[in-house]
Write a structure and sequence with these properties.
Blueprint: H1 2-11, E1 14-19, H2 44-47, H3 50-55, H4 57-72, H5 78-89, E2 92-97, H6 103-107, E3 112-114, E4 117-124, E5 130-132, H7 134-137, E6 153-157, H8 166-178, E7 181-185, H9 197-203, E8 207-212, E9 224-227, H10 230-239
Parallel strand pairs: 1-2, 1-7, 2-3, 7-8, 8-9
Antiparallel strand pairs: 4-5, 4-6
Helix pairs in contact: 1-10, 5-10
The structure holds ligand BV8 and zinc ion.
């Protein structure tokens, strides 16, 4: 399977990559569906919603602070680095990540779109001003930080039940529609509308490669499904391009 993927990537002129929480797992970041994805007996889907924030902003901020601390101490892993090397080799490359951890950027990825926002940005509920803090400067208060206008700040991420950023979504669709190859890495493929991308890529005639530890709903539409750790498979692919 690896050799088949290498042959496909060697011929590729335009590569669209979709990543999920699994690509950061080897950096020690809990994924949403792994057993350790839970925090204080809450599940991510309980907390990553506007209702949860409305009901208890301090609790939701505490969860984000917990995640920011884990991410701040983490480093990009060999999977993130391999995608940077792949970007440097490809004529045309776009990385769409569902992750909010900024690890692709820290690894050096340049053509990247964050479909679900960033845990290191915050947005004012009142005046909608956005604050890109970066990992060092995130205010470490557990209660919601406030904006100079007096409004409280929320994490600048897309919660369940919220629209994804349409400019980013349409840019991703446009690139995916013309990419000759699509690489899906470390995503369980259950969160919409990102979960629609494998089918969309297939309709547009892309050759699709999936890397995951387990089969996913996308596995029946991909051309090559490689079972294994992204931190091992991606470097093995890029070393042979
Ligand atoms: C929207 C930011 C519509 C927050 C996140 C149909 C159509 C439209 C919407 C829906 C629909 N059906 C359901 C919905 C609602 C919902 C949804 O999809 N629900 C799911 C639970 C069924 N979708 C939405 O609400 C989206 N909004 O569509 O709006 C709309 C229309 C009109 C008006 C209003 C709204 C918004 C979804 C965005 C949610 N926000 N994150 C935050 O992070 O705090 S999603 C969040 O979950 C993460 O971003 C992450 O992307 C996602 C988890 O998925 P994965 O990344 O795949 O991670 P997961 O843990 O699941 O899996 C890890 C995988 O990695 C596993 O497969 C594992 O095997 C693998 N792995 C592990 N280790 C490794 C590995 N692979 C390789 N190597 C390893 N080492
Ligand atoms: Zn404000």
């Amino acid at each position: 399977m690896i050799q088949k993927a290498i042959d496909i990537l060697k011929k590729s002129r335009s590569l669209f990559v979709l990543t999920g929480a699994g690509i950061s797992a080897e950096s020690g970041i809990p994924t949403f569906r792994d057993a350790d994805g839970l925090w204080k007996n809450y599940s991510a889907t309980d907390l990553a919603t506007p209702d949860a924030f409305r009901k208890d902003p301090a609790l939701v901020w505490e969860w984000y602070h917990w995640r920011q601390d884990i991410i701040r101490c983490a480093q990009p892993n060999t999977a993130h680095q391999a995608l940077v090397a792949m970007e440097n080799r490809m004529e045309s490359f776009l990385l769409l990540t569902q992750n909010v951890d900024n690890l692709h950027q820290r690894a050096g990825s340049r053509n990247i779109l964050e479909l679900h926002g960033s845990i290191f940005r915050a947005r004012c509920l009142n005046c909608r001003a956005t604050y890109a803090y970066g990992i060092e400067k995130m205010p470490d208060t557990v209660s919601p930080p406030t904006c100079p206008c007096g409004g409280i700040l929320r994490p600048d991420v897309v919660w369940f039940g919220e629209m994804i950023p349409q400019d980013i979504w349409h840019a991703a669709l446009a690139f995916c529609a013309t990419a000759d190859t699509v690489l899906i890495c470390g995503t369980s493929g259950v969160v919409w509308p990102a979960a629609a991308l494998p089918g969309y890529a297939q309709e547009h005639g892309s050759t699709i490669i999936e890397i995951n530890l387990e089969p996913t709903p996308a596995s029946n539409v991909v051309d090559v499904a490689i079972k294994g750790r992204a931190g091992k498979i991606l470097p093995a692919l890029v070393e042979n391009l």
